[in-house]
Design a protein that fits this description.
CATH superfamily of the largest domain: Aldolase class I
CATH architecture of the largest domain: Alpha-Beta Barrel
Strand content: 15-25%
Radius of gyration: 26 Å
CATH topology of the largest domain: TIM Barrel
Number of domains: 3
Distance between the termini: 46 Å
Number of helices: 16
CATH class of the largest domain: Alpha Beta
C-alpha cells in the first residue's frame, strides 16, 4: 500500500502563512484539490499563532485528510527560530491536533538520542528530510527504509545545478521505496514534475507562496501538468531556452494534449549548456522539444537530420527525438510569420524591414523572401546583418536610415521589450515609417513597440499570432494529429490578458 495514498493523494499541497487565519484558509483551499497537505508551522510568525492554528485544526479535523506537520528550524533551511526542544514540542502538538505525519530534518535527527523518536508522542509516521540548497550531493544508489527503523520515509531535496543533477535524483527514486525526491531550483523544475512517475512517494506544490526554489503551484501541478496522471508511458516534450520562465509554450501544448486526450506532458527546461540537456533526453523519455533563445542555431550541429528549409535558414525551433535517440530538426517559425502578416497585407512584392539578425530573424527573412517580398535587415551586429541579407537576396539598412526610408512592414525579431522588460522598445516612433508593425514577442501581447505604433496610426500585428501558428504546427509534427486550435488559442489569450 502506498505510504501517502494514490492519484492526487501523492501530490502534497504546501500550506504556509504567517498567521493562523491565513493558514486555515489555505488548508481549506488545499483540501479541495488533494487530501495530502504539509503544514509549515515554522512559517507562522510566533508561538501564539502556532497555538491558535493548531487549536483551530483540532476543531476542524478534516475527514480523510493526510496531514504532515513541519516546523523546520533555521539550521535546516526553515523559519523556526527555536531550538530542537521547541521544534519537537510543536510537532507533538500537531500530533494532538490530528497530524498523522511529521517532517523531521536531518539536522534535528542527528541531535536526538538514537531511538527516541519512537518514544516521543510525535505523529505516528516520520519523514526524515535532507536538504541541500546549494547543490546535489553524492547520492546513494537506493534508499531503503526498513520497518524496524526509526523513520517511515526519507526525503532528499537538493538544488539541481544541471539537468544531470536532477536525473541522478530521479534515478534514486526509481530504485527506492518510501523515498521522496525533490529536485530544487529552476533547472530542476521538469524533474520535480516527473518525480511521481519515477517513483517518488510525494510531489510538493504550494497553495500560494513558494517555500522552496523551483516550486510549481498546486493548481499548475494538478491541472497544467497533471502530475498525478503521468506514467512511464507518458510521452515527454518540452521547450529549451535560457531564460525560459516567461514561456507560454507549456500552457499551449499541455492544453492541446488535454483537449486531444493525448498521454503526453510538455515541460519548461532551463538549459544553460545544450549538451547537458541532450545527455538527459533518453533518461527523461523526451520525444520532442521546442527550441528558443539562445539555442536555435547551436542545436543544428547535434541533429542527425534537418529539413532543407531549416538548414537553409540556419535555425531550428522544433526537434523530434527518434526511438534511437537521434534528432530530426525543422522550423515552424516561418509558418507563423506568414500567417500573421497575410491578415494585414499582401506579402508578394512588399518591402519589409526586419530588425535583428538572430535565429528568429533568419526564419522571418527566409519566409518573407520565399513569399516574394523585398527584405531589408537592420541589426546591431553589422556582420550578422550582412550575412543574413546576402543569404535571402536582401540588403542591409543602416539604423540611421530608418527615419527616411519607408516600408510596407517593420518586424521586430529581437527580444527587446519582452517580459519582464516590457517597458522598453527596440525602435523609436520616428523610425516607424511603415504601414504595419509586427513584434515577434508575444509576452506581453501588446509590447511598447506596438503601443507606440498604434499611437502613430500604424496597423499592428502581435507576436501572439505567430506564436500560436508555429505552436500548432509543432504539435501536429509531434502527434501526427490536427491541433485543437480553439482550446489552445483560448488558453494562451486568457493567460496573456490575465497577466497584463
Amino acid at each position: 500500500m502506498a505510504l501517502f495514498g494514490t492519484g492526487m493523494g501523492r501530490v502534497c499541497a504546501v500550506v504556509a502563512a504567517t498567521d493562523a487565519a491565513d493558514m486555515s484558509r489555505q488548508l481549506r483551499a488545499a483540501l479541495r484539490s488533494t487530501p495530502t497537505v504539509e503544514l509549515r508551522l515554522d512559517w507562522l510568525k510566533n508561538d501564539a499563532e502556532r497555538g491558535l492554528f493548531l487549536r483551530r485544526l483540532r476543531k476542524f479535523s478534516p475527514a480523510k485528510a493526510m496531514l504532515l506537520a513541519t516546523c523546520r528550524r533555521r539550521e535546516g533551511g526553515g523559519k523556526f527560530a527555536g531550538d530542537v526542544d521547541g521544534e519537537l514540542y510543536w510537532l507533538m502538538q500537531a500530533h494532538e491536533a490530528g497530524c498523522e505525519w511529521c517532517d523531521l530534518e536531518m539536522e534535528t535527527y542527528r541531535e536526538l538520542p538514537q531511538g527516541i523518536t519512537r518514544e516521543l508522542p510525535l505523529p505516528r509516521r516520520i519523514l526524515l528530510s535532507i536538504h541541500d540548497f546549494e547543490r546535489t550531493p553524492k547520492l546513494p544508489r537506493t534508499v531503503s527504509v526498513t520497518r524496524h527503523g526509526l523513520v517511515d520515509a526519507v526525503k532528499i531535496a537538493a538544488k539541481a545545478r544541471t539537468i544531470a543533477d536532477s536525473v541522478r535524483l530521479l534515478k534514486v527514486a526509481r530504485r527506492s521505496r518510501g523515498f521522496v525526491a525533490v529536485p530544487m531550483g529552476d533547472v530542476g523544475l521538469p524533474a520535480r514534475i516527473l518525480a511521481l512517475r519515477e517513483g517518488s512517494a510525494l510531489a510538493y506544490a504550494p497553495v500560494e507562496e513558494a517555500t522552496a526554489p523551483g516550486q510549481v503551484s498546486l493548481d499548475e501541478m494538478l491541472h497544467l501538468y497533471r502530475v498525478h496522471q503521468l506514467t512511464r508511458a507518458t510521452r515527454v516534450y518540452g521547450v529549451i531556452g535560457d531564460p525560459i520562465g516567461h514561456s507560454l509554450s507549456p500552457l499551449l501544448h499541455n492544453t492541446g494534449f488535454a483537449a486531444g486526450r493525448i498521454d503526453a506532458v510538455y515541460l519548461p527546461f532551463l538549459v544553460h549548456d545544450l549538451r547537458d540537456f541532450l545527455r538527459a533526453i533518453l533518461d527523461l523519455g523526451v520525444r520532442g522539444f521546442s527550441v528558443t533563445l539562445p539555442h536555435k542555431q547551436t542545436i543544428l550541429k547535434y541533429l542527425k537530420e534537418c529539413d532543407p528549409l531549416a538548414a537553409e535558414i540556419g535555425a531550428v525551433n522544433t526537434v523530434v527525438v527518434r526511438r534511437d535517440g537521434s534528432l530530426h530538426g525543422s522550423n515552424t517559425d516561418y509558418v507563423g510569420v506568414l500567417q500573421a502578416l497575410e491578415e494585414k497585407l499582401p506579402i508578394k512584392n512588399s518591402r519589409m524591414l526586419i530588425f535583428g539578425a538572430g535565429g528568429a530573424a533568419r526564419a522571418t527573412a527566409f519566409a518573407l523572401a520565399r513569399a516574394g517580398a523585398f527584405v531589408g535587415i537592420c541589426a546591431r551586429r553589422e556582420k550578422a546583418a550582412k550575412e543574413l541579407a546576402r543569404a535571402v537576396g536582401g540588403e542591409v539598412i543602416p539604423r540611421r536610415a530608418l527615419s527616411r526610408e519607408s516600408f510596407d512592414a517593420i518586424l521586430n525579431a529581437t527580444p527587446i521589450g519582452m517580459h519582464p522588460h516590457q517597458g522598453i522598445s527596440p525602435l523609436r516612433a520616428g523610425e516607424l515609417q511603415c504601414r504595419v508593425v509586427m513584434d515577434l514577442i508575444y509576452r506581453p501581447e501588446r509590447t511598447k513597440l506596438l503601443k507606440m505604433a498604434a499611437q502613430e496610426g500604424i496597423a499592428t500585428v502581435s507576436g501572439v499570432e505567430m506564436f500560436l501558428a508555429q505552436g500548432f504546427a509543432q504539435w501536429e509534427i509531434w502527434t501526427g494529429k490536427r491541433a485543437p486550435e480553439a482550446a489552445m488559442r483560448q488558453a494562451v489569450l486568457a493567460a496573456l490578458r490575465w497577466r497584463s
